[in-house]
Design a protein that fits this description.
The structure is a single chain. It is built from nine helices and two strands. It is mainly alpha-helical. It has one domain (11-155). A two-stranded parallel ribbon has the order 1-2. The radius of gyration is 18 Å and the shape is globular.
Length: 165
């Protein structure tokens, strides 16, 4: 967009006309990840101060959506997919396949730009890890998490999410 602004400028600082012009001039890509996998990743990175995954999930649920950290806040509230017309939605776990398609559609050389991804290993590992972590949760926590992420689960096709049931 041909307007000078600093990298720190947030979209919300512009008026609606400028926002529409800016968004219309960019190729918009949204990277999404299963919300339960995001929770696991956040917990594994030590971002939660809880000693167990179940305690961490309870802290997340107790914080509520309005006070949630960006690390686990529902994607719908972060990315506004109902208002922003994204050109591409790329799912975590399918990065190699989807990035190849995205680069090809953009007219860029696919083979030279895509790093080596091990999507199959990542999906298998997260599937196994999700199963183990899901077992730690009470039935009430599972229901509350499904409710917490209900709009993400409705908006994106997380076919194998433990929260979809």
């Amino acid at each position: 967009y041909p307007q000078q602004h600093t990298l720190e400028t947030q979209l919300s600082k512009f008026n609606l006309t400028k926002i529409e012009a800016m968004l219309g001039s960019y190729t918009k890509v949204l990277f999404v990840r299963d919300p339960f996998q995001r929770l696991i990743s956040t917990f594994m990175q030590g971002m939660g101060s809880s000693t167990s995954f179940s305690s961490f999930v309870q802290d997340v649920l107790d914080s509520g959506q309005h006070n949630a950290s960006v690390a686990w806040k529902p994607l719908i509230s972060l990315c506004q997919p109902c208002f922003v017309q994204y050109d591409y939605v790329v799912m975590f776990g399918f990065l190699r396949q989807e990035l190849g398609h995205l680069l090809q559609r953009s007219g860029l050389a696919v083979d030279s730009l895509i790093p080596e991804f091990t999507d199959t290993q990542v999906r298998w590992t997260y599937s196994w890890l999700s199963e183990q972590m899901f077992r730690e949760l009470s039935l009430q926590q599972k229901k509350q998490l499904s409710h917490f992420y209900r709009w993400d689960l409705a908006a994106f096709q997380f076919a194998s999410s433990f929260l979809s049931d």
